[in-house]
Structures are given as structure tokens and as C-alpha cells.
Amino acid sequence: MGRTILHVDVDAFFAAVEQLRRPELRGKPVVVGGDGNPHRRGVVSTASYEARAYGIHSAMPLRTAYKKCPQAVFLPVDFPTYGEYSHRIMAILREYTPLVEPVSVDEAFLEVTDAAADPLALAEEIRGRIHTDTGLTASIGIGPNKLLAKIASGLRKPNAVTHIPEERAAEMLRELPVTVLWGIGPKTAARLQDVVRVHTVGELCTVPLAALRALLGDHHGAYLYRICRGQDDSPIVTEWEPKSMSRETTYQYDTRKREVLIDTITALAAEVGGDLQRDGYRGRTVTVKIRYHDFKTHTRALTLPEAIDEGARIRETAVGLLDRFALDRAVRLVGVRVSGLTKTAGEERGNGGLWNG
Ligand SMILES: [Mg+2]
User: Is the peptide bond before 29 cis (omega within 30 degrees of 0)?
Assistant: First the structure.
């Protein structure tokens, strides 16, 4: 029997929450990102649909967004408030099935194969519940797998339910750009365009398997061959386990001072230690990431004989790693990561790591 998967995606989540709690912002271009100051370093987290009309989109530098629409309302990211909304939405979804896989704060997959005789009616009900209970709108995609459900939710945003049945997948995907497919980022898309003149999913389906393997390597080539045909058998993962926990800081002004780097590492190590202890993990490998002003990024890692979760020990290891960087240029960003995680006994899982995607 075929599967039925829903992909629920709240529309313009951060901006929608801001417009919800501040009615005077409704109907206006709202940009949420960084500390809310468009003249400082930082990127757009979410733009309201009114702001998108000016060409503003996620991941765009705030300064660029300001140039496109100086009259937009710029607001800082308020994670605690968005987190509360996220919890309420995930709780609503879990009323319909325990098989919920959150993929970010405002997105989740639901396996409803056994729960829904009429998936369209169920999706409409969930969309209505989210709106009644939170005031937010969501778009919901329905498909025979996660890949197609996710593409479906993006087809008619905002506030819509869209179904891609297996038998109509080829036709519904044909004209879409290849970037709607998972695993095709701007780099792969550019290669496909330059080398095999492929722009759409339909065109990608005409490229033989051998040619894709030659172009992108065996594994990635075979993967693309499957996903452009709408094939995906990845399961819903309800027990989310982090592979690592990390924190990083981008400096407002690039720095060459070792003392500043050590202060930053101390603060980041304390935060990572707090994250690990809160969620009940210890890890053996400590990694320091340094991004220089020219965007060259270097990492140095050390694996310890035993797993740790104390900020002071993470700091000690990370500061030791600092000696293994050249530090011959100004530094733009510093990060500290702990990986090789093992669960400490009897702890509930938290969801703090979801913020990191
Ligand atoms: Mg969303």
C-alpha cells in the first residue's frame, strides 16, 4: 500500500508572528533578521509577503533588503516568542498522529498513511486548527513520500493545501526548476545548466543515469536520477538525535586580537556546555571554526579520551586548538562545536538544536 505524508509549513513564520502580535504591522512590509538594525551585519530570517513583493527574501543581507525597501519595518529575531508558537503548532500536529517529524521551528512531516482515509480533508482540518488556535496560516503539501509532500506545500503558498498524487507527480513537476528537489543547491543547479543544459525537473528526467553519475559522482548522480522521478523512501524520523551541538558568533567588526577570540570561545563553550547538559548529551570531539575576513573558513578538532559536557572543559580544549590556527588575518566569525555525542542517562530530549536547522 502507498504511503500518505503531509508536509506542514507555516507561512512567513517569524514575520507572521510579529504581524499577529502587533496589528499595526499587518499589510506592511516586515523584515525579521539579526538584531533588527538594517545598517548592521546580519541577514533576513523571514520577510512578510508584503516585503517579498519588493524582492526581499530569506538569507539576503539586511543592508540589501534596506536598499530594496527602506520603508519596511525591520525587527530583531525573537526566538523565545517564536519557540512558544512552534511548540503550540507541533502539539496540534501530534493530536493527529504521533508520527511527526519536525524539520525546523515551523515545518514538520506527518505520516498519516493509517490515519487518513481522506488526506485532503485531514489537511484542511489541520490548516483550520492552526489558524483558529494560533492565528497563523500554514500551507500543507500531501504526497506519497516526504520529497513530494515538501514540494507540494511550496507550490501554492500561502494558506493552501496541495496534493501531488503519485500518478500525477511527473506532470506536476515537469516545468518546475530543478532547485525544488532536495539536494540540488545553487552549485549543482549551475553545473546542470552549464554542462547538460538542464533547467527543469522534466529536462533532468531525460538525462541518462550514466551521464548524471559522470557529472556528479556515482552517489549524487544516482540520487538525482531517483528524486527527479519523484522517488523517495526516507522514513519519518520522530526520535530526533543531534549529531553535534554548536554555537558561533559573527563579529560586528573583524578582529585580530587573540584575547577577543579567547573571550568569545569562553562564552561559546559555556553556551554549548549548557545546551549539552540541558538536552542530556556528552561529546568527545571539540571543533573550533574560524572564518577570516576573506570568508576562508578553517576548522581544527580534537577528540578526547572521554566525553564531556562542562563548559570549562570545552573551553580548555577549544583554546588549546586556537594555537593550531595561523591567525594571520582578521577574523570574522568564531564557532565552537562538540560532536561524537552520547546520551547521558534518563534525559528527555529538548528541541534547542532545531534552531540550527
Ligand atoms: Mg515556513
Answer: no
The residue to which cell 534547542 is assigned: 352
Q: How far is the CA of 10 from the centre of ligand 1 (A)?
A: 4
| Distance from C-alpha of 301 to C-alpha of 282, rounded to nearest angstrom | 16
DSSP characters over 248-265 = EEEEEEEE--HHHHHHHH
Q: How far is the CA of 104 from the centre of ligand 1 (A)?
A: 9
Sequential pLDDT tens for the chain (357 residues): 689 999 999 999 999 999 999 999 999 999 999 999 999 999 999 999 999 999 999 999 999 999 999 999 999 999 999 999 999 999 999 889 888 999 889 999 999 988 778 999 999 999 999 999 999 999 999 999 999 999 999 999 999 999 999 999 999 999 999 999 988 988 999 999 999 999 999 999 999 999 999 999 999 999 999 999 999 988 888 765 678 899 999 999 999 999 999 999 999 999 999 999 988 899 999 999 999 998 888 999 998 989 999 999 999 999 999 999 989 999 999 999 999 888 886 444 444 434 332
Measure 108 CA to ligand 1 centroid, in angstroms: 10
Q: 290 CA to middle of ligand 1, Å?
A: 30
Active-site residue, 95 included: no
**The pairing of beta strand 73-75 with beta strand 30-32:** parallel
- Sorted by where each starts, the structural domains of the chain and their CATH numbers stand as 14-79 (3.40.1170.60), 174-227 (1.10.150.20), 244-346 (3.30.1490.100)
Write out the DSSP string of 114-159: TT-SSHHHHHHHHHHHHHHHHS--EEEEEESSHHHHHHHHHHT-SS
Per annotation, catalytic residue among 50, 101, 107, 271:
107
CA 12–ligand 1 middle distance (angstroms) = 5
Model pTM?
Answer: 0.69
Q: How far, in Å, CA of 200 to CA of 177, rounded?
A: 4
Residue of 32, 185, 18, 8 lying closest to 112 (CA atoms): 8
